[in-house]
């Protein structure tokens, strides 16, 4: 009679404990498999892959932590019920070795994940620093390539202006006035052409000055692009380093606290 009452009284908590254990197991395994599958193809030696992998495990790290805690909660509830039943029935069951219990493996997994997150913190900071240096070199290379390209364009622009001035210098007064009235030439430009016709030697110094101004504009434009690109990259790397670094440390603390404290209590039981 007493056994039937105890069994009836115990049925609901047992179901809750079983649900918690199954839910915790499913959540943990699903999160770990998600991380492993999303990391395919594995390229351990590639810096960007390492950055993406650490980012992935940190972004999803809270899920297996919650899953392990839920599993351990269910297991603890179930173990408490078992001890209560043994006490009520004044019976003893053979005690299994620590490593034979599912709780031990859950705590071991938590400790292992804690170690992974401890190692992930310096690895991510190192990779972000190296990636930032590589980005700096890439921006400089792109800047040099752009400077060469724009320098060629400046040379072509100056040559085009030289040809245009040469053609306009052959025009007479009436032709220049027609160009002005047709809005193809401004009065200032026409006066400049007249000055060139009066003093042809002034054309090349004028073009040299124009080329120098254009090259200064090109250099300023390239420096501005490089500065903008570098500042944007530094900001992104800083955000990534802080977010992933702090997240990794917090997860490491969480996993290690659950794992090591649980293993210590398990040995004392």
What does this molecule look like?
- The chain has 269 residues and is mainly α.
- Residues 84-93 have low confidence and may be disordered.
- The protein has helices at residues 2-38, 47-59, 62-89, 102-168, 173-181, 187-198, 203-268.
- The relative contact order is 0.12.
- It is built from 7 helices and no strands.
- Helix content is 86%, strand content 0%.
- It folds into 2 domains: 2-90 and 98-142 and 232-268; 153-229, no CATH class.
- Helix 2 (47-59) crosses helix 4 (102-168) and helix 3 runs antiparallel to helix 4.
- It is rod-shaped and about 110 Å long.
Structural class: mainly alpha
Distance between the termini: 31 Å
Helix content: over 70%
What kind of sheet is the major sheet? none
* Number of self-contained structural domains: 2
- The whole-angstrom Rg is 38 Å
Counting DSSP E segments of at least 2 residues, the number of strands comes to 0
- List the quaternary state of the chains: single chain
Low-confidence stretches: 84-93
Task: Please state roughly what percent of the residues sit in beta strands, choosing from under 5%, 5-15%, 15-25%, 25-35%, 35-45% or over 45%.
Answer: under 5%
Shape by Cα distribution: rod-shaped
Following the backbone from N to C, one meets helices and strands in this order, namely: HHHHHHH
> Counting H and I runs of at least 4 residues, what is the number of helices?
7
Give the mean pLDDT.
Answer: 82
Protein name: HpsJ family protein
InterPro entries: HpsJ-like
Keywords: Membrane, Transmembrane, Transmembrane helix
Transmembrane segments: 20-42, 62-81, 102-123, 244-263
């Amino acid at each position: 009679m007493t056994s039937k009452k105890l069994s009836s009284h115990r049925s609901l908590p047992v179901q809750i404990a079983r649900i918690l254990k199954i839910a915790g197991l499913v959540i943990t395994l699903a999160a770990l498999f998600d991380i492993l599958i999303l990391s395919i193809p594995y390229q351990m030696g590639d810096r960007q892959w390492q950055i993406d992998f650490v980012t992935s495990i940190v972004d999803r790290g809270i899920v297996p932590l919650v899953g392990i805690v839920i599993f351990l909660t269910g297991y603890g509830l179930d173990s408490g019920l078992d001890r209560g039943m043994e006490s009520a029935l004044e019976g003893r069951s053979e005690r299994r070795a620590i490593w034979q219990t599912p709780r031990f493996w859950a705590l071991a997994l938590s400790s292992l994940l804690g170690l992974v997150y401890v190692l992930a913190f310096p690895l991510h900071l190192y990779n972000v620093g190296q990636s930032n240096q590589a980005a700096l070199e890439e921006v400089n290379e792109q800047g040099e390539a752009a400077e060469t390209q724009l320098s060629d364009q400046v040379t072509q622009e100056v040559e085009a202006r030289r040809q245009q001035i040469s053609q306009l210098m052959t025009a007479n007064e009436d032709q220049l006035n027609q160009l002005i009235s047709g809005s193809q030439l401004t009065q200032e430009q026409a006066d400049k052409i007249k000055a060139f016709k009066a003093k042809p030697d002034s054309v090349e110094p004028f073009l040299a000055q124009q080329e120098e101004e254009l090259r200064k504009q090109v250099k300023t434009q390239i420096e501005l692009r490089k500065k903008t690109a570098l500042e944007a990259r530094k900001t992104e790397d800083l955000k990534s380093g802080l977010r992933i670094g702090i997240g990794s440390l917090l997860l490491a603390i969480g996993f290690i606290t659950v794992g090591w404290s649980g293993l210590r209590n398990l040995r004392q039981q």
